[in-house]
Specification:
By secondary structure, the protein is α/β, with parallel strands linked by helices. The protein contains 15 helices and 22 strands. The strands form four sheets. Strands 1, 2, 3, 4, 5, 6, 7 and 8 form an eight-stranded mixed sheet that branches. It has a five-stranded mixed sheet with strand order 14-13-15-16-17, sandwiched between helices. The radius of gyration is 21 Å and the shape is globular.
């Protein structure tokens, strides 16, 4: 199984994602980028194998590799720009199960490749035409252990973050890193901010003790730890540390949708401007934009799509409802370090608990379902029938199909990272959201 999309190249190790495929893709990237290329990986047991294949592919083209070690994906992107490298590769399958791994390709600007750049990379791979060098021209490998430090320093230099104020507050925080790339970096980041930090699922085991997506149903242990330790907040990330989810002071997961909502409420109070989120993000963001009288735009799902729209519209903040916060003043990528900093600063300035802050946020009920994708699924017929059944609102077909009602929405699309159909519904009541999901399931069964 190999999936090639705007999210990079990912697959099941040994079944699609093989050393040959990895090396050829890395060589194609080395041919395009040249110069110095940074790499970093998550904690998967396959990480060393993939990393070594990547190194071989890159240096074979004469490009040099700077290995940052195990560190979060946003740290890799930050360092590419900070160190003025020619590009980077984050070796991680993010929220995918442990048997998966992936390569996410980063441009010299510190953002993921766009569709045109990804297309060029794929052309070189498929034609098997990298610019291989002879023994005198191959590149070099160097190690750099300061990637996390540079990233944290960059975030904490933001003028809206009162580092000394946060330190004096002495927040009690529980951190759940999904035993992933942030297992060491994020607890140390929080301790550096003067927080009293407890951890769950923050070890380098080579596997994940909970499903890596930081969704409420996967954060039971974190919620229990927050209550037992009387903590102010619980933070959770996925396996590569770019998505951030929050558990409130009562041990309740607020839902990954509300990370960008809280971060945006804080940020727009200080800096007004357009906001960009994807088509699958909670409509609470529309309420926040209206509150601050700013424009909101929606892109196709996928970080690269959100970033492109943010640049086009001059957005001051953006992200995705999967826990992704993108702060252009720091970098154009989902950045959990930036997200945690904004949330802690928000609590500090408002002098309210997370549960109290959530009382000021519009509440909707969201339901997310996945269905295994197969070639027998007839997308066009399904989408046409959905458009017929949901004829009382607007229909958007930019990314799968999205129905937009007066106080509800439904989005159906093929995942770009797994062989799945994702179905998301949001409404003012759980009953209404469930009804929309069930309608879709019935349509898919009948067709």
């Amino acid at each position: 199984m190999l999936i090639i999309s705007v999210s990079g190249v990912r697959g099941i190790v040994g079944d699609g994602l093989t050393p040959d495929i990895i090396t050829r893709y890395a060589a194609a990237f080395g041919t395009i980028a040249g110069g110095n290329i940074l790499i970093g990986r998550d904690t998967r047991i396959s990480g060393d194998m993939v990393k070594n294949a990547v190194i071989s592919g890159i240096v074979s083209t004469g490009a040099n590799v700077i290995d940052l070690g195990i560190l979060p994906t946003p740290s890799v992107l930050y360092n590419v720009k900070k160190m003025k490298a020619n590009g980077g590769i984050a070796i991680t399958a993010s929220h995918n199960p442990i048997e998966w791994n992936a390569m996410k390709f980063i441009s010299r600007d510190g953002i993921f490749l766009n569709n045109k750049e990804s297309g060029h990379l794929r052309e070189i791979f498929e034609s098997n035409s990298p610019s291989y060098k002879d023994w005198q021209g191959i590149g070099k490998l160097n190690q750099d252990g300061n990637g996390i430090r540079r990233h944290i320093e960059g975030v904490l230099s933001h003028p809206f973050i009162d580092v000394e104020g946060i330190r004096k507050r002495r927040f009690k925080v529980v951190m759940d890193c999904s035993d992933g790339a942030s297992y060491l970096a994020y607890p140390e980041f929080l301790r550096g901010l003067g927080c009293e930090v407890s951890t769950v699922n923050c070890e380098n085991l080579g596997y994940f003790r909970r499903p890596p997506e930081p969704r409420p149903e996967n954060l039971t242990e974190l919620g229990k730890a927050v209550k037992e330790r009387d903590a102010d907040i619980g933070f959770a990330t996925d396996a590569d540390g770019d998505r951030l989810s929050i558990v409130d002071n009562k041990g309740k997961p607020i839902g990954e949708e509300y990370t960008i909502v809280l971060a945006s409420k804080f940020y727009l109070e200080k800096k007004r401007g357009p906001v960009v989120v994807n088509l699958s993000t909670t409509m609470a963001m529309d309420d926040v934009a209206k509150l601050y009288n700013v424009d909101i735009y929606r892109s196709k799902v996928g970080e690269a799509n959100v970033v492109r729209k943010m640049k086009e519209m001059g957005a001051v903040i953006g992200g995705e409802g999967n826990g992704g916060v993108i702060l252009p003043d720091i970098q154009y990528t989902r950045d959990a370090v930036a997200g945690m900093s904004l949330i802690l600063q928000y609590i500090l300035e408002q002098d309210k608990s997370v549960s109290k802050l959530m009382e000021d946020v519009p509440q909707y009920h969201i339901r997310k379902e996945i269905i295994r994708f197969s070639e027998t699924i007839q997308e066009k017929k399904i989408f046409d029938e959905i458009e017929r059944q949901f004829s009382d609102g607007k229909i958007n077909r930019d990314d799968g199909i999205k129905y937009i009602g007066s106080s509800s929405w439904l989005h159906i699309r093929k995942s770009g990272t797994e062989p799945l159909i994702r179905i998301i519904a949001e409404a003012k009541t759980q009953k209404e959201a469930d009804k929309m999901i069930n309608t879709v399931k019935n349509v898919m069964e009948e067709i």
